[in-house]
Design a protein that fits this description.
By secondary structure, this protein is of the alpha+beta class. The chain contains 6 helices and 18 strands.
Length: 244
């Protein structure tokens, strides 16, 4: 017999919402397990049970926004650092890319609870995702996330075949082996990296281990969503038919 599991944990594992959101929905009586309303925090359930959200909870999730920003160098993706601004300060009506707004108007409530789903170093540029939706955050940065992130990396130094092989698989950081990557030459001085993890300053540190110095780094894709023509310093909403 399978051991019972906390309802909020199971909801998160199934991608219904984040654990924090699950606790909020449960507390407000917006969750049904096998057809019965559950409103007690900490409730444990059968791992194979049927879970349904009340229409009020589903509507609340539909209103949450996800934003794609072309982050410039000099902005931190997460917590502010002395002398530097967080990337979220760029989310303003005047920086909304008009070609990509799809008729959706900015509203100040779109900033409430908006958080980066993954990091992009202060000295890197490219696609940064900020979201109010815990399901998307978990999809992109959860422990079991399998979403690809693609980068164009300008480098200095010499790289032989052995070094290139190590970049693809064989390096460790902080005593832990890195997951296999896909790394190859884009042109004479630029590499293309495709990773399924995001350790702190991972690409720069990987390059250092094989004798390369990174002089420019740009993220151009997360999953099936590309940076495309989004101008530097501007942002747009994730479209209803877009999926990572």
């Amino acid at each position: 017999m399978t051991d019972p599991i906390r309802l909020s944990k199971l909801m998160s594992e199934r991608g219904l919402c984040s654990r924090r959101e699950a606790d909020s929905f449960i507390e407000r009586g917006l969750v049904f397990v096998d057809g019965k309303r559950v409103s007690e925090l900490g409730t444990k359930v059968d791992p194979d049970c049927a879970i349904r959200l009340d229409t009020q909870a589903s509507a609340q999730q539909q209103q949450r926004v996800t934003i794609l920003l072309h982050k410039p160098i000099g902005y931190v993706s997460g917590q502010p650092e002395p002398g530097y601004q967080p990337a979220v300060t760029l989310i303003r009506p005047d920086t909304l890319w008009q070609d990509g707004c799809a008729g959706r108007a900015f509203h100040p409530t779109h900033l409430k609870g908006l958080a980066p789903a993954g990091r992009l170093d202060i000295d890197s540029t490219g696609l940064l995702v900020l979201t109010q939706d815990g399901r998307i955050a978990k999809q992109l940065i959860g422990d079991h996330s399998d979403i690809e992130k693609e980068y164009l990396v300008r480098v200095e130094g010499r790289l032989d075949e052995r070094g290139l092989a190590l970049l693809n698989h064989g390096l460790s950081l902080d005593g832990r082996k890195l997951r296999p990557a896909r790394v190859g030459w884009q042109n004479a001085d630029q590499l293309r990296f495709i990773l399924k993890e995001g350790r702190k300053r991972q690409i720069r540190r990987m390059c250092e281990l094989v004798g390369l110095n990174v002089v420019g780094l740009k993220r151009v894709r997360i999953g099936r969503v590309r940076l495309g023509e989004l101008p530097l310093g501007q942002w747009r909403y994730l479209l209803p038919d877009e999926r990572f």
